[in-house]
Amino acid sequence: MNRRNFNKTLGMSALMLGLGGISEVSSWGLSQRPEVAITIDDFNWNKAVRLDPDQRNQALLEALRSHGNLKAALFVTCKFADNEKGKKLLTDWDRAGHLIGNHSYSHMELNSSKVTAEEFTADIEKCDEKIKSFPQFQKSFRFPYLKEGDSAAKRDAVRNYLKAKGYRIGHVTIDASDWAVDNRLTARLTKNPAADVTPYRDFYLSHMWERSLYYDELARKVLGRPVKHAILMHHNLLNALFLGDLLDMFQNKGWKLIDAANAFKDPVFAATPNIVPAGESIIWALAKETGKFDKLLRYPAED
Question: Whole-angstrom Cα distance, residue 175 to residue 291?
Fold first, then answer.
């Protein structure tokens, strides 16, 4: 899907869901001002398009620091931290006070028929061994691809393992596809390092805002209340270049930026929806569990 059609799809979907007319927090009143925390997945720093790994890492950290010293959650795929360079870059996040969580060692997809619960939990354990010594590490686990099991047996086996090990699930409330935009941006800059990146920035901000509105409205419909949001993002060039713009956008539109540890205190993050296949945004999963909102649900998160 090209950028123009993708943007049209997003706009039409928002309109169909009754969200197209919502642009500012004033629609709900100051007492229900939306709150959002930044959560960053993968820690895949092994690319050097436009910015080298150190520059990318520092750009992300500086964007957070310059917005009230905001504390994010970094969910680490530990194969990227299992070397001296990765440890050094991860130490920068730890020293800055950001929450460090487990995203498995190998980034397996639990919904794959080729991955057993035993293999998956062993991969979680392997990651735990690599990052548990970091002072900011917390026993919070985010499923790769947000996939939590293609059967009830597999889902429950991993949930029981996490509970026994003292882990909580690091859900997201706002699912988004920054990774897809980053793939296009990186390909463009690889072909032409001098290319104008402004269109990618504009589309990224539009996409993230539309996703935020969608999930905020869905949360209010499903739960009857606002939630403290955790938005899904990735350690990539796109966010290194434009995370500061994204944070500005949220603030300019009336959303409150909060630390990830604060967001995870919301009771919604302790929910265990009884659906199969399991996973996706916790808001999406809770909506699916009720059976009342299927006409509002978009799956996958994007075409």
Answer: 20
Torsion sign, CA atoms 249, 73, 142, 255: negative
CA-only gyration radius of the chain, Å: 19
Instruction: Please determine, for residue 151, whether its predicted confidence score (pLDDT) is greater than 60.
Output: yes
Does residue 101 carry a pLDDT above 80? yes
b/e per residue, 188-202, with b = 16+ CB within 10 A? bbeeeeeeebeebbe
Kindly report, residue by residue over 18-45, the tens digit of the pLDDT: 333 333 443 443 457 999 999 999 999 9
* Residue found by looking up tokens 């930026």 in the block: 257
Question: How far is residue 167's CA from residue 160's CA, in Å, rounded to a whole number?
Answer: 10
Characterise 204 by phi-psi region: left (phi > 0), alpha (psi -120 to 50), beta (else): alpha
β-partners of residue 256 are 35
Q: How many CB atoms lie within 10 A of CB 272?
A: 16
Place of tokens 């799956």: 299
Question: Quick one: which of 179, 166, 181, 159 has its CA closest to 132?
Answer: 166
How far is it, in rounded angstroms, from Cα 98 to Cα 101? 10
What's the pLDDT band for 146 if we cut at 50, 70, 90? very high
Distance CA 102, CA 64 (A): 21
Angle between helices 178-191 and 237-252 in degrees, nearest 10? 130
Q: Cβ of 2: how many Cβ atoms within 10 Å?
A: 8
Torsion of CA 67, 71, 77, 79, to 10 degrees: 90
Residue 14 has pLDDT above 80, yes or no: no
Distance from chain centroid for Cα 72 = 11
Closest CA to 124 of 85, 174, 163, 69: 163
Unique residue bearing structure tokens 């509002």: 296
